[in-house]
Amino acid sequence: MDEAQVQQCARNFISDLEIKDVRDDLSVYVKAANAKVVKEELGKGESGYTITKPNGKHVITVNSLEPEERQRFTICHEIAHIELKLPSSHEEVPSWSYAKRHINEVMCDIFAAELLMPYVQWRALVPKTEPSLDVLEYMASQFRTSFPAAASRYANLADVPCAYVTMERGAIRYAARSTLLRKVGAWIAPKSPIPPGSVAHRLREGGVSQVDTGEVAQDIWFENWDKGLDLSELARHYAKSDTTVALLWFSEEDLPEVETTRFGARVVEDDGLSELTGELTWPGRNRRR
């Protein structure tokens, strides 16, 4: 099951539900999943879990010590486990961390984002302006979710080439890309270091929690990318958790014209063989790299 399939499952789940009040009340989702929610004080880093009773009823327990926005996300995440029938694989890894997380947990996060920030409602509320810190914080407040969750959703649904990158301890963990970037095979490699020259790299080097924006070269972030093109980068560093996030965007006019395979990978042009001239060259003097 890939990201697109999970998104479609989530949209099918909510298609027949009355969701106009989900920004304040998630009970319509809980009821549809044949579940109930219990709030208890759980251990540090434990956001929640689900137990299924013999009668088929699901009991979702969330950590009452965590912020309300985190509890809301946990409820939707656990509903994802129920609806997708994916076993839980938390394994003591914090729910906000992509490091070493099982693919089941990542897929359930994608499902949860669709429930917390429904597509139609999101499109109706998102400001039709340049991306900014104010826009992202506004959308997070409108859907009562975290800044990272809102920023990731923003990148996924953006009409312009846009990506949202999560980094931990100096390494890239996950990148959400808009449709336009996925179509041209734009790729930000997981597990690679935060690229030098980026705003994110500069902020992390500073060692304090801060946010900043700047213009950087597109090929700093994207692999096998054309040179000479710039993008805007809004980065935020959280010193306490050594987590860095970045929103990247540029105009569609600055999108390189590229060819991709049916799997979405970029086709890198090869210089090919030199034209035959009839002249013999000395072996080894002109090697292709």
3D structure, described in words:
The chain folds into 2 domains: 1-116, Orthogonal Bundle (Arc Repressor Mutant, subunit A), CATH 1.10.10; 132-267, Beta-Lactamase (2-Layer Sandwich). The protein has helices spanning 3-14, 27-32, 68-84, 103-116, 119-125, 133-142, 147-157, 179-183, 199-206, 218-221; strands spanning 35-40, 48-52, 58-63, 162-168, 171-177, 210-217, 230-238, 243-249. It has a 5-stranded antiparallel β-sheet, sandwiched between helices. The chain is built from 10 helices and 8 strands. The two termini are 38 Å apart.
Structural class: alpha+beta
Fraction in beta strands: 15-25%
Mean pLDDT: 86
Instruction: Report the total helices.
Output: 10
Shape, principal axes of CA atoms: globular
- Indicate the low-confidence ranges by residue numbers: 92-99, 270-289
The span between the termini is 38 Å
CATH class of the largest domain: Alpha Beta
Per the CATH scheme, the topology name of the largest domain is Beta-Lactamase
In the CATH hierarchy, the architecture of the largest domain is 2-Layer Sandwich
Q: Helix and strand succession?
A: HHEEEHHHHHEEHHEHEE
Relative helix content: 25-40%
- For the record, the count of structural domains works out to 2
Order of strands across the widest beta sheet?
5-4-8-7-6
What is the gyration radius calculated from CA atoms?
A: 22 Å
Q: How many strand elements?
A: 8
Main sheet summary? 5 strands, antiparallel
Domain IrrE N-terminal-like: 32-153
Protein name: Zn-dependent peptidase ImmA, M78 family
Pfam families: Peptidase_M78 (PF06114)
Organism: Paraburkholderia phenazinium
